[in-house]
Design goal:
Length: 262
């Protein structure tokens, strides 16, 4: 099964259904961003600290990675950055194109897999923004490696990802207010599904998700040549029972440190 294609179709469907993560920013948000009053998120609720960015992003080359939906990319473009946004979902990218056209912004959209950034040159970008999304790839080390390749020396990666504890509970039970530890880490959506239900699940155009370890998330960045310089946690905003016990999302700021291997 082609997981990338499955998730591409699934996110196209989410756009059609109006999922929260496919709803583009308003004209008012863009107007404020043009005047220098801007912020973005890479998790669910909390805004990325402004001191994680340079005082001005004007003219900086920013890659919004797996970041379609008309949210981060248009805001950064309105703030003056030279923005490229890539995503596996055509319809998610259409949200960015719509905002750009609506509000007179210049940004570039490229459909592609976050694990393969071969469309982009080495050391081209100043900043990479990666909202929670690497749960949709089986192996995240290629993602970190590719981000490192396309970033300039001392370039910044701002990434959001899931706390693996989110995945250990039975999701259906948790939504009922019952915390039932059922799954191990790492794992995949399909691992604990009866064989009789797998085909139906795939045919429903639902996302296939992967629960990654914290070691893969954080040491994986370090192994790709990054030094982590910022960290915060986030949750669902009080809408899930887990919010009462633990933060289920993490954001990191990391700097690419070029190493002389000679």
């Amino acid at each position: 099964m082609d997981t990338t294609q499955q998730n591409s179709h699934a996110w196209d469907k989410k756009v059609e259904e109006g999922s929260r993560y496919t709803q583009s920013v308003s004209r008012e948000v863009i107007e404020k961003s043009k005047s220098g009053d801007w912020n973005i998120t890479v998790t669910t609720e909390k805004q990325v600290p402004r001191n994680w960015f340079p005082a001005s992003v004007d003219g900086l080359r920013i890659l919004c990675l797996a970041s379609g939906g008309g949210q981060q990319a248009p805001v950064l473009a309105a703030a003056g950055a030279d923005v490229t946004v890539t995503d596996i979902s055509k319809k998610q990218l259409e949200q960015d194109d719509m905002v750009a056209k609506r509000d007179g912004l210049s940004l570039k959209t490229v459909q592609g897999d976050m694990s393969d950034l071969s469309d982009f040159d080495d050391e081209y970008f100043d900043i990479v923004i990666n909202p929670v999304s690497n749960l949709f790839v089986k192996d995240i080390q290629p993602v970190w490696n590719e981000v490192s390749r396309v970033l300039k020396d001392k370039g910044v990666l701002i990434a959001g990802f899931t706390n693996p504890l989110l995945w250990i509970f039975d999701d259906n039970q948790e939504r009922k207010g019952i915390l039932d530890v059922k799954h191990s880490i790492p794992s995949c959506t399909l691992d604990y599904m009866p064989a009789s239900e797998v085909e139906e699940y795939i045919n429903s155009s639902s996302t296939i998700e992967y629960a990654h370890t914290l070691e893969d998330q954080m040491q994986g960045q370090i192994d790709a040549g990054f030094v982590i310089t910022g960290f915060y946690e986030d949750d669902f905003g009080g809408t899930r029972i887990l919010d009462n016990y633990i933060k289920t999302f993490i954001a990191t700021r990391a700097i690419k440190m070029k190493v002389d291997r000679e």
